[in-house]
Design goal:
By secondary structure, the chain is an all-alpha fold. The chain has helices at residues 2-71, 82-97. α1 packs antiparallel against α2.
């Protein structure tokens, strides 16, 4: 009887451990999928921003290059595309932040 209880206890422990490993694996897959989606949205927003503001972006990049040459170093602080990237990431993060318990 004791050996049966030990076997049952070991089986339950093993099963619980396998379930937790599976959940951890699924969570990692889900995180990678979310990151991939965010990257895809960012790339699309960059393409759209460039398409809609091509002349201004190219002029700003040229001016930044001249400024970098004059200063002896490049600085991405004034990158004209960076605001579009940040805006898209913030929108995506906001979508996930506002999920209900059921949606999570």
């Amino acid at each position: 009887m004791i050996s049966e209880q030990l076997a049952l206890k070991n089986h339950l422990h093993s099963r619980a451990e396998n379930i937790l490993k599976e959940v951890e694996s699924l969570e990692a897959i889900n995180q990678n999928k979310i990151i991939s989606n965010v990257m895809q949205e960012v790339l699309q927003s960059i393409d759209l921003a460039y398409k809609n503001n091509k002349q201004k972006i190219e002029q700003d990049i040229f001016d930044l290059a001249l400024e970098g040459i004059a200063n002896g170093k490049m600085d991405y602080q004034k990158d004209p595309i960076l605001p579009y990237i940040i805006e898209t990431i913030n929108k995506t993060v906001a979508k996930f932040s506002n999920l209900s318990k059921e949606e999570q």
